[in-house]
Amino acid sequence: MSKGGASIPDEEWERFLKEAGAGGAGAPEEPSARARMVAQRLREEPDGPPEGWRTYTPARRRRGKGWAALGLAAAVAVVVAAVGPWGIADRFDGDGTSATPLAAESELPTGPPAREATDRPPTLDEPFRGSPAARWSDGAAGIHLPEARATGWMSRAEVARALEKTQDFLAASALDPAVLRGERPDQAMALINPHQSDVRDFLEKAFRTPDRENDPLLLFSRFRSSDVRPAGDVVKTRGRVTFQEGKRGALEVSTDITYVYPVVRAAGGDDEVARTIVRREVVMSWDDPAKIVIEPGTFSLVSYKVDTTNGGCDTHTGYLTPAFLAERTATRPDGGAEVDPYDRSTSMEERMRESDDEGCGTASRS
Question: Which residue spans within the chain are E strands per DSSP?
Answer without folding.
Answer: 54-56, 61-69, 72-73, 76-80, 137-138, 143-144, 228-230, 236-245, 251-265, 274-286, 300-309, 338-339, 359-363
